[in-house]
Recover the amino acids of this structure.
């Protein structure tokens, strides 16, 4: 040790006594090699240097990387949280391949986490300023076991990524120094956040100081692009990674992005041969860039004398505070929204979109579908349509963003390229008409009246010449608000309804896989001609289903009404239904615990939308595993609304004399008395949840010790504190025991005998998603009565009921 320290002091003395060019060090160290305080590694092109330094007036020592041939500018620090108080620090590689920083007592001050151990490790400082640990036999970037670019400090260099590795969960972000003398992590960070869509954030603590709008497919909304010859910005988003980086465009100019300790993000450039850094820009540079500067439902316009205004339809929450230029309280609606009355949208152009706090995205829809989706969701307060996503979408449709609640951090932009339009939902009384619009409306009314009279006369004449059968078909196609397909097109798509294309059948008819001319795969449901449904009833149902827009509901794409044919086209679900997996001895293992949890939450959210967030309150009445379809990514979508019913605004429960559905999922009050409500669906969800956890069917379940169904068996195990025994055996390696118990408890709460005891779906989602929440103890489930020991599988064909038509949603009418 004394020999090593003497050598280190000797090198330090030499480097201080002779010209700097005489002390050029190697760029790497290997096993049992080291560098001490006063020694350095220098990259092969002499651009960067690694060694020990003291920042500002501090006497603490840190291992860092800095530009070599410019004024010392540190770009990376290893031991930010553990400074060395003396000159005895040593960087070395242990025999086990670990790269470590030691102090005088040989204690490890800093060491990176390694995913694997290299056989012949070498630590090398690259010409990019990246310190890497790799195997000496492989210099490719894929062989890096660790790199300093994966653990940035306060500076972003060309080629360095800021963002996420979605496979490993690694987040790369810049973190400011605490002060100019202290490189330990400060309060500010520069990162990429992901809330469905990625966006850039300059954060302060856990909050936000500045943020961009979402990535719209081409650029970040709200970040005015700067055309320059110094650097080129790059953004990548795929299934493996989401990150931003920049590349140098000019070899004569050095560029870096630094988050300084005062919370500003600076782009600095240095011309080769110069001794001073020049600021290209600093961020934030104006008040409108500060997060939420105008409060909730306000918009910031930098060119105005008073830069903060309320959005159309809103007024200052406190006019007195606004008059004093205190606008933090924001704005509130002048006329509250009423989902049952007429409402419209006002378009605000060229803005940075509001923060994505309470929102969701629907991809691959048209602008009109986006508007309809927002109108049909009572909690939707605004929507925006990202046209840029249409460029990569085969059907030419873009992305629909919908917000709920307050709109935070909207600002007007000067650059059209980074700007988007947003449509704010307001009461129709707030829309108003200006003078030009009134004149235009008068002209339109005059022309429309004349055209209407002429059209009416021609229509009367034409109707007398049409055959009655042709009139019936024409009437059936009016006002469906849904694409209509010719029977010939559908026949071609399904190979003339070939049996080889059939993917399902039932009392409603048959389902076929079809491929439309543009290459879109669809599920074609050809309804049975034995259905007693008339044209008008079919029209009502199709219009209603078309208005249900949620990512966890199967989407209706179109229909066909031709002669006696009644055909529906749905989005095609390649992974079939949930029962195809969980009840199969081999395929059940494909759904690990995490995926089953995602499926459960998806079903719950779809059901909550039907019960609460859609324009009409809808009771599904036939929720079961075979009606949960799975898309390419095994995301669940509720299907088959054949037995669904609409509830009125204040209607809590109704009764029917015709009991239809599937035994094993139907609630006791529905089977016995014909009463059904949202709590009937909650019961079905509980049964489905217990089936997902156990991998066993409720109907047909048997046990050697008793003759209860699956719900009764789950209750008995719960009473005996043996609930984990209900879990599917294939989940043992992937499950989290506390989550399994919580799911079983929620399932038992949902299948309680009395409807009043069962939770609402909003409570179900809260209980499933919050492990810290305290759950009530369940009471005994419905149908908690032992059956006679009959082979229920042989009876299932006689007692499992279904509807004759898969889309019989009844419209409530006054009597």
């Amino acid at each position: 040790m004394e020999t090593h320290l003497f050598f280190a002091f000797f090198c330090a003395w030499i480097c201080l006594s002779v010209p700097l060019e005489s002390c050029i060090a190697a760029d790497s160290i290997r096993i049992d090699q080291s560098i001490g305080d006063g020694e350095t590694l220098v990259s092969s092109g002499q651009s960067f240097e690694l060694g020990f330094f003291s920042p500002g007036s501090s006497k603490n020592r840190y291992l860092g990387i800095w530009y070599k041939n410019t004024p010392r500018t540190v770009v990376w620090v290893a031991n930010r949280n553990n400074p060395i108080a003396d000159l005895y620090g040593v960087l070395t590689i242990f025999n086990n391949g670990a790269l470590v920083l030691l102090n005088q007592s040989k204690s490890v001050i800093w060491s990176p986490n390694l995913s694997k151990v290299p056989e012949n490790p070498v630590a090398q400082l690259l010409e990019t300023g990246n310190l890497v640990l790799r195997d000496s036999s492989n210099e490719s970037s894929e062989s890096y076991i660790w790199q300093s670019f994966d653990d940035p400090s306060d500076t972003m260099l060309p080629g360095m990524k800021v963002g996420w590795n979605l496979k490993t969960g690694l987040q790369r972000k810049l973190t400011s120094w605490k002060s100019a003398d202290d490189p330990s992590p400060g309060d500010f960070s520069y990162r990429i956040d992901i809330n469905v869509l990625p966006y850039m954030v300059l954060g302060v603590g856990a909050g936000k100081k500045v943020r961009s709008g979402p990535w719209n497919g081409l650029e970040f909304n709200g970040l005015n692009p700067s055309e320059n010859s110094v650097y080129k910005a790059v953004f990548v988003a795929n299934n493996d990674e989401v990150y931003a980086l920049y590349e140098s465009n000019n070899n004569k100019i050095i560029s870096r992005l630094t988050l300084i300790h005062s919370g500003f993000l600076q782009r600095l450039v240095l011309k080769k041969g110069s001794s001073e850094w020049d600021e290209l820009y600093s961020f934030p540079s104006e008040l409108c860039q500060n997060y939420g500067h105008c409060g909730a439902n306000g918009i910031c316009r930098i060119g105005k004398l008073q830069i903060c205004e309320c959005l159309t339809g809103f007024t200052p929450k406190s006019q007195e505070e606004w008059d004093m230029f205190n606008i933090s309280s924001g704005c509130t609606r002048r006329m509250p929204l009423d989902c049952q009355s007429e409402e419209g949208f006002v378009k605000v152009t060229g803005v940075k979109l509001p923060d994505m706090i309470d929102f969701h995205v629907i991809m691959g829809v048209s602008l009109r579908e986006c508007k309809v989706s927002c109108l049909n969701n009572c909690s939707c307060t605004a929507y925006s349509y990202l046209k840029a996503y249409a460029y990569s979408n085969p059907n030419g449709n873009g992305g629909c963003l919908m917000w709920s609640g307050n709109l935070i951090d909207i600002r007007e932009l000067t650059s059209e390229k980074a700007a988007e339009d947003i449509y704010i939902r307001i009461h129709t009384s707030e829309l108003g008409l200006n003078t030009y619009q009134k004149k235009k409306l008068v002209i339109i009314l005059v022309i429309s009246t004349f055209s209407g009279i002429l059209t009416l006369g021609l229509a009367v004449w034409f109707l007398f010449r049409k055959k009655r059968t042709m009139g019936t078909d024409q009437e059936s196609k009016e006002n469906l608000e849904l694409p209509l397909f010719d029977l010939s097109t559908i026949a071609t798509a399904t190979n003339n309804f070939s049996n080889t294309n059939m993917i399902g059948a039932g009392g409603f008819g048959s389902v076929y896989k079809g491929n439309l001319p543009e290459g879109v795969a669809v599920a074609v449901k050809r309804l049975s001609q034995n259905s007693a449904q008339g044209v008008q009833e079919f029209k009502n149902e199709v219009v209603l289903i078309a208005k249900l827009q949620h990512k966890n509901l199967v989407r209706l794409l179109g229909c066909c009404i031709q002669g006696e044919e009644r055909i529906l086209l749905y989005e095609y679900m390649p992974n079939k239904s949930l029962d195809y997996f969980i009840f199969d001895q081999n395929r059940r293992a494909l759904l690990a615990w995490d995926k089953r949890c995602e499926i459960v939450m998806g079903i719950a959210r779809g059901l909550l939308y039907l019960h609460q967030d859609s324009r009409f309150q809808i009771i599904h009445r036939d929720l079961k595993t075979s009606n949960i379809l799975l898309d390419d990514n095994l995301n669940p979508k509720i299907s088959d609304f054949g037995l669904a019913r609409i509830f009125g605004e204040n209607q809590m429960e109704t009764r029917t004399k015709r009991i239809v559905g599937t035994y094993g999922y139907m609630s006791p009050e529905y089977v016995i008395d014909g009463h059904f409500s949202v709590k009937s669906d909650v019961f079905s969800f509980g049964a489905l949840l217990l089936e997902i956890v156990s991998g066993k069917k409720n109907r047909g379940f048997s046990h050697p010790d008793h003759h209860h169904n699956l719900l009764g068996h789950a209750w008995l195990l719960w009473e005996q504190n043996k609930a984990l025994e209900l879990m599917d055996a294939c989940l043992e390696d992937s499950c989290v025991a506390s989550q399994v118990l919580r799911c079983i408890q929620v399932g038992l709460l949902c299948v309680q005998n009395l409807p009043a005891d069962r939770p609402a779906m909003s409570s179900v989602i809260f209980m499933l998603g919050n492990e810290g929440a305290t759950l009530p103890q369940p009471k005994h489930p419905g149908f908690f009565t032992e059956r006679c020991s009959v082979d229920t599988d042989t009876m299932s064909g006689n007692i499992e009921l279904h509807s004759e038509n898969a889309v019989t949603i009844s419209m409530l009418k006054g009597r």
